[in-house]
Amino acid sequence: ELHKSGLGLVFAEKNEAIVQDLNTNRGYRISINGEDEPFVPVEGAVHISKDETVQGLDGIIQHAHVIITAIGSNNLGDAASVITKPLSERAKNGNPINVIACENMISNSSSLKGMVKSQLATEEAELIDAKVGFPDCVFDRICASGSGMPVIERDYKWSVESGQWKGAHDVPAITYAYGIQPFAITKLYLL
Length: 191
Known about the structure:
Shape: globular
Radius of gyration: 17 Å
Strand content: 15-25%
């Protein structure tokens, strides 16, 4: 849905074969409950090396509108290691940015924020507080692995904590809400 909102997608991935595939094909296909397999365009994919350095990620984050993780809650520490330095630079030099951790856990983005801030000096952490939003979210779309292709539901709701968002509420795919607990409860009932 993000590409339909006019946002370009760039993937950061540890698996070099996936990076090469995304860059070669300039996107990927998904299956939406048996409908046609729409093509999701990707502007680029960058490889995260074993020592967690990412060639070009600094520049990508400096120009990004929003950063989203969907990597499993047990991998958020790795994500924090990769994004902390570029986010700190963005906070010093740029406009506000939001980082959304779409993970199945309570306080998903807030947890990532704590991991990022723990790697910074006090002044840098204060800049993160001022310029980088880490809005918690609830995403209720089920995604399953099909025959080598992601299979997703057609209907979904992506609710983001409005009070934790920095800047304008300008991503049409998101429902901005003050208090996302009701959406979390609805998700539990739907699953």
